[in-house]
């Protein structure tokens, strides 16, 4: 009987395990350089929020043409839109891709633009989850800015994880707020203008308030609700919300 050799199947789970074993927890630059040079088609997903510039700066040092996916929900602060342009120009990012909701779906499912007032999960699905899922289709993996210090379901984040068949990197997972601030200071990186007004985490304008003294950075997201994630992130292969 002829012998048929079978090649080992290298899954996203395998890749994540290898990266978690290979890199020191705080070696964010090492993880990013590895991802952008050795892991196929990788995109960086950025909200251009309070701490986003750190990851963008690290990625730009490897490749200024890295695809940066920016989900513009149509509900962002004007300050975020101007900050996005400012950061891209400062870092020389040449491949920022604005990801928007499908206009037909918007007209069908959020006719008055007030869906966020009645159903935030449905609104996030329409304005964030679906557009990003479509934008990620060409990629083998993506880089996110999630960190353990954000609390909630993020406290056990690892550097790398599998999201179905796609690899997901969280290079700053183990960084502290002090380390993030020190990196921005050391590289003289521009700050999101709303951080000076107390915003520790910045999402859509209708669903974000400034954090109060002593609160976790993401406490101002979806205030008054038990919702803590928009649904673009997964844990153990399952969407966090909805
Ligand atoms: S954060 Fe608020 S406005 Fe933005 S997509 Fe989600 S529910 Fe809609």
TrEMBL record:
Pfam families documented for this protein: PAPS_reduct
Pathway in which the depicted protein is active: Sulfur metabolism; hydrogen sulfide biosynthesis; sulfite from sulfate
Active site annotation, chain numbering: 230
Enzyme class: oxidoreductase
The record's free-text note on cofactor binding: Binds 1 [4Fe-4S] cluster per subunit.
Cofactor(s) of this protein: [4Fe-4S] cluster
Domain of life: Bacteria
Domain Phosphoadenosine phosphosulphate reductase intervals: 42-210
Alphabetically ordered keywords of this record: Cytoplasm, Iron, Iron-sulfur, Metal-binding, Oxidoreductase
UniProt cross-references to InterPro entries, sorted A to Z: PAPS/APS_Rdtase, PAPS_reduct_dom, Rossmann-like_a/b/a_fold
Cellular localization per UniProt: Cytoplasm
Catalytic activity: [thioredoxin]-disulfide + sulfite + AMP + 2 H(+) = adenosine 5'-phosphosulfate + [thioredoxin]-dithiol
EC code(s) of this entry: 1.8.4.10
Binding site for [4Fe-4S] cluster: 123-124, 204, 207
UniProt cross-references to HAMAP family, sorted A to Z: CysH
Family membership noted in the UniProt record: Belongs to the PAPS reductase family. CysH subfamily.
Main function: Catalyzes the formation of sulfite from adenosine 5'-phosphosulfate (APS) using thioredoxin as an electron donor.
Protein's name according to its UniProt entry: Adenosine 5'-phosphosulfate reductase
GN (gene name): cysH
